[in-house]
Amino acid sequence: MKITDIKATTVTVPLTAPLRHSNGAHWGRFVRTIIEVETDEGITGYGEMGGGGESAELAFAGLKRYLLGHNPFQLEELRFKICNPTASLYNNRTQLFAAIEFACLDIMGKKLNLPVHQLLGGKVRDQVPFASYLFYRLPNEKGEAEVRTVQQLIDHCRELKNQYGFTVHKLKGGVFHPDYELECYKALAAAFPQDKLRYDPNAALSVEESIRFGQAIEHLNNDYYEDPTWGLNGMRRVRSMVRIPTATNTVVVNFEQLAANILDLSVDVILLDTTFWGGIRACIKAAGVCETFQLGVAVHSSGELGIQLATMLHLGAVVPNLAHAADAHYHHLVDDIIVGGKMTYENGAIQVPEGPGLGIDIDRDKLARYAELYRELGGYPYDRDPSRPEWFPLVPNDRWADPNA
Ligand SMILES: [Mg+2]
């Protein structure tokens, strides 16, 4: 089997409302690039990457010289063709390779009439549990769906819990002063005493502020304490002073960092991202290292549509040591580009796809509609806040948004 072409289409799909985070916001939509890898046997595989536009489409087009004629089953060879570690000093293609790996696995599964999880060792669970992902939100175009006050946050959490069945809640923080976010976090704990909580301010806090915040929530039903501060050394200092497992999706995102973390422990739970790590297979390999050293594993979300969500489900299905609910932004989207519409949650979990390959298909009409919407709206700066045009954060930050504004 040979790869004959690769197509990339950037789309934008609306969110219920703009999602705020420590660096800015998702401005009411996600921008993703969908790829289609074609073969000489008429089988097409799908992949997805975050961000997009002309540059992403051209980046994939530029990989044709590496891909055309390559057998999609020869994934390990392809990794070295595209992601040779020393060549990558000049040209880091990890995220591009991840999208191509998804498509190649999709092709393999379709050719063999097997779901991807069967190619990856076989599933050990039928559903993957997810955490609610609570964001402070700006009002949407209708002036609705704002999450800013403590009561709005509690209401939002209850709405998501009732609708999807979540029993683990992750608060994305780093937007307001830590004292205000502490009040919010404690209010969530009081409102949902049976449920587990995670706090993730995207490394916005200083080490000292992280220790203060962490010690103030130690007695609550915490799942883990995610990236309170920046850097392995900062996280190590926090970990030495706070009795909550630490977690990261920022300072351990490759094998070099994983090794460094194991040799001098800073982070207890590694959030694996099928894009950041360079594919589902790299995540499984990292999960194996974590299993050996008895580190925790969870699944990170970098803002997925259905194709990427499928990669997260196949990953979650085959990793035995997944002791934490996965993260997904998925329920903040109003639609998806896959056939059948958005995948559904039941009791806070999503069923692992059982069809051949990734087990999802692209809805051509929706792909065209959301590609058109992208052409209309363009990209947005992820690290800017539309409500504070002049603002940018420091790390650690001290330029917090005003919860009364
Ligand atoms: Mg995070």
Describe the protein in words.
- This protein is of the alpha/beta class.
- The chain has two domains: 3-114 and 363-376, Enolase-like, N-terminal domain (Enolase-like, domain 1); 119-351, Alpha-Beta Barrel (TIM Barrel), CATH 3.20.20.
- It is built from 13 helices and 15 strands.
- The strands form four sheets. The chain has a seven-stranded parallel sheet with strand order 7-8-9-10-11-12-13. The protein has a three-stranded antiparallel sheet with strand order 1-4-5.
- The longest helix has 19 residues, at 94-112.
- The chain is globular, with a radius of gyration of 20 Å.
- It starts with a strand and ends in a 28-residue tail after the last helix.
- The mean pLDDT is 97.
- Bound molecules: magnesium ion.
- Magnesium ion is lined by residues 200, 202, 226-227, 249.
